[in-house]
Every structure is written in structure tokens, then in C-alpha cells.
Design a protein that fits this description.
5 helices; about 0% strand
Length: about 210
Amino acid sequence: MRKRFNIYIAVVLGLLLLVIVTANGSNTSALQTTAQPTGVATAAGTEVANPCVNPAATAAPTMAATAAPATLAAGATQEAAPQIARPSNPGGPGPAVKLIGDVTKGQQIFVDKCQKCHGDQGTTGVANPGSDDGTVPVLNPIDPSLVSADHYVYVCNIDLFLEHGSVPSGPSPQQTMPAWGDSGQLTAQQIADVSAYVISLNPVPTAAATPAQ
């Protein structure tokens, strides 16, 4: 009888031990599942969609930035982000975005390399048969979507075209934007100089001063 009792106790203890181990394993699996990082694909997609994000703006978000967004008022609609002009050729910003451009040198490079298509001071684009627009885009005034109060973003928006070039939309455009950077026809410093000159022709608008009462 005593031997049978001991066997019974051993079986009960074994079952209890099995239940404890199984429970711990389930909890561990649950913790591992919830600890998986999220948002990686979103972050990568954002970077590809908009390569001209100021690195200073990618710092860790503050508590205010991570707070829940405010609810839109009744009847209000959330405006879509404006479409920024981008070249047809792929590629990110080049080394020129980290350099300080010289406006005077950039003007001379513009005269030598760019004026024949974009006109004097970028004001008159030459005819471009076969393109949807019919002419080469003017640079003065420049496409407003490229202008930004953030100087890095402004420079980067222009740099993408200078680095990688672009083919305008249309069945058979005769004029295309050369890839000045990728082809090595312009150095990084020269691209920075041209960007500085184009920006000087299109300064960021400032808010009108409030008249004195």
C-alpha cells in the first residue's frame, strides 16, 4: 500500500511540474511576440518617397510629437501633402548638399552650362518638341513645390535634378536634363554653386510685415 501511495504522489508531482513548465513557455512566447519591432517598412518607404528630409528632423521624437493627434473638427478634411516635383531618373541627394555654394561662381557655371536651355537667368525655356510641356521649364520663377524655408530641403530638391538628370514627360522630347553629377560633368562643389545661384534667383518668400496701427 505504501509503495502504491508513493507512486501516486510521484505521478501528481510530475503532472504539476509539466503544467508549470508549459505555462512558463506560453508566457515567454507571448512576450517574444509582442517585443517584435514595428514600423520598419513605413520608415523605409518614407525615406524612398521623400529623400529630401532634413537629417536634423529625424531626431528622436519628443513627448509632444508622439502625443495622439487632435481630432479634426466636424466637417473638416485633412489636406493631402503637396506633390513635390521630382526628376524622372532615380537617385538620392549627392555630396553637394553638404557644401556651401558660391553664388557668383554658380552664375558663371549657369551661363556656360544651363543658359542655352533655361534662358538668361533662367527666365525663358527653349522649345522642346515632343514633350508634354512643349518647352524646357523655366527656373526663374522655379517650380514652387521645390522652394522650402528649410535650406537643406531647398538645396536637396534642386540637387536631385542636377545630380541625376531628368527626361520630361512626352512621346519623344528632344531636350532632356543632363545628369551633371552622375556623368562627372560637374563636380560636387560646382553643383553646390549652381544650386546657390538658382536659389538666389528664387528667394524664400517672407511674410509681409504687419502695418502699424
